[in-house]
TrEMBL record:
Residues 101-333 form the ATP-grasp domain. Catalyzes the ATP- and formate-dependent formylation of 5-aminoimidazole-4-carboxamide-1-beta-d-ribofuranosyl 5'-monophosphate (AICAR) to 5-formaminoimidazole-4-carboxamide-1-beta-d-ribofuranosyl 5'-monophosphate (FAICAR) in the absence of folates. This is 5-formaminoimidazole-4-carboxamide-1-(beta)-D-ribofuranosyl 5'-monophosphate synthetase. Pathway: Purine metabolism; IMP biosynthesis via de novo pathway; 5-formamido-1-(5-phospho-D-ribosyl)imidazole-4-carboxamide from 5-amino-1-(5-phospho-D-ribosyl)imidazole-4-carboxamide (formate route): step 1/1. Its EC number is 6.3.4.23. PANTHER family: 5-FORMAMINOIMIDAZOLE-4-CARBOXAMIDE-1-(BETA)-D-RIBOFURANOSYL 5'-MONOPHOSPHATE SYNTHETASE (PTHR38147:SF2), 5-FORMAMINOIMIDAZOLE-4-CARBOXAMIDE-1-(BETA)-D-RIBOFURANOSYL 5'-MONOPHOSPHATE SYNTHETASE-RELATED (PTHR38147). The keyword ATP-binding applies. Keywords: ATP-binding, Ligase, Magnesium, Manganese, Metal-binding, Nucleotide-binding, Purine biosynthesis, Transferase. ATP binds at residue 226. SUPFAM superfamilies: Glutathione synthetase ATP-binding domain-like, PreATP-grasp domain. It catalyses: 5-amino-1-(5-phospho-beta-D-ribosyl)imidazole-4-carboxamide + formate + ATP = 5-formamido-1-(5-phospho-D-ribosyl)imidazole-4-carboxamide + ADP + phosphate. Its cofactor is Mg(2+); Mn(2+).
Length: 356
């Protein structure tokens, strides 16, 4: 992984009055570019192939300029060009997944957030160590697939947009569906409603929901629309579907907004707080947006089954704010919040604190 000292040296040569926000044209880039423009920052879209035409339909979110590469593996070839443009990379799920966590970690361009989190987030075992070390309730782990005796969720490593997840109730079902070439983890299946909780941690702010250092914000919530899991049971009962050889899949096709019972907010903030404080102990703390992927049970318990330590696509419909973000600041999206943090760090002379 590129060192913090190397990144600091690059930042020291930047024209900080002309910073630019750069990300890959995918995932949550519309919101990232829109938020940067609202805060007066230049924007650079990194395109694989050619600039997507749909940006022409959204002029407020269209990047100021594009840099075109043939594939994600070619992104390291444009690092000098990005540095010359005073670029700060904003990571998102597609960017990191398709480029590869190891390659992304070595990218010699200042990046928003702490890259140390990649090691803890992309490895399911280390992720569990982090979350359980924070005192978070997670679904039980099943180390040996031969021990499957009730419904479990089998997950492959990395951010794949829900692709490849499957439910198994027996060892035989596990063998029928598993890809032996993929690294996986097995969790007990928790019955409840899925809530994706979108937080923002600032190590710079000193007003708000205070932590040992900085503050925590809770900007929005959503749940995912998954194909074909959300519609499949219109075709019959689970047994009938199974007999017909039809199995649910969990590929994310969209998101819908949610608001939680207000009485759950203390617990929701407590979860975010514990995760941030443990990250500070383990690797110096994550910075900026993160998402806890949870299940709310009918006993009003919250089980956390995964963390995404960057902006996630579930924030996309909150470009003009959410029922929660609007109580922080009107018209506040996660993309805009990222841009505001970068500007605050620049004004405080502390870009080193939020970039790596």
């Amino acid at each position: 992984m590129i060192s913090k000292q190397q990144i600091s040296e690059i930042i020291s040569k930047y024209d900080q009055e002309n910073l630019a926000i750069a990300t890959v044209c995918s995932h949550s880039s519309l919101q990232i570019f829109d938020g940067a423009r609202k805060e007066g920052l230049k924007t650079i879209g990194i395109c694989v192939g050619q600039p997507p035409r749909f940006y022409d339909a959204f002029p407020k979110a269209k990047p100021d300029e594009y840099i075109v590469v043939e594939s994600y593996s070619d992104i390291p070839k444009i690092t000098q060009e990005l540095v010359e443009k005073n670029a700060i990379i904003i990571p998102h799920g597609s960017f990191v997944e398709y480029m590869g966590a190891k390659n992304f970690a070595e990218l010699p361009v200042p990046t928003f957030g702490n890259r140390e989190v990649l090691e803890w987030e992309s490895d399911r075992e280390k992720e569990r160590e982090w979350l359980e070390g924070a005192g978070i309730h997670m679904p039980g782990n099943v180390p040996d697939p031969k021990d499957i005796n009730s419904p479990v969720m089998v997950k492959y490593y990395g951010a794949k947009g829900g692709r490849g997840f499957f439910i198994a109730k027996t060892y035989e079902e596990f063998l029928e569906n598993i890809d032996p070439n993929e690294k996986f983890t097995i969790q007990e299946f928790i019955l409840g409603t899925r809530y994706y909780l979108h937080y923002f941690y600032s190590p710079l702010e000193n007003e708000g929901y205070k932590l040992s250092e900085g503050t925590l914000e809770m900007l929005s919530m959503d749940r995912r629309v998954e194909s074909n899991a959300d519609e499949i049971f219109r075709l019959g009962s689970p047994r009938e579907l199974e007999e017909a050889g039809i199995h649910p899949t969990y590929v994310v096709t969209g998101n819908v907004p949610l608001v939680a019972r207000e009485s759950l907010l203390p617990l929701i903030f407590s979860l975010g707080e514990k995760v941030v404080e443990e990250s500070i102990k383990l690797f110096g703390g994550m910075v900026g947006p993160f998402c806890l992927e949870t299940v709310f049970t009918d006993k009003l318990e919250i089980k956390v089954f995964e963390i995404s330590a960057r902006i996630v696509a579930g924030t996309n419909f909150y470009i003009s704010g959410s029922p929660y973000a609007d109580l922080v600041e009107s018209d506040l999206s996660t993309g805009k919040r990222i841009a505001k943090e970068i500007k605050l760090a620049k004004d405080m002379g502390q870009l080193d604190k939020i970039l790596s």
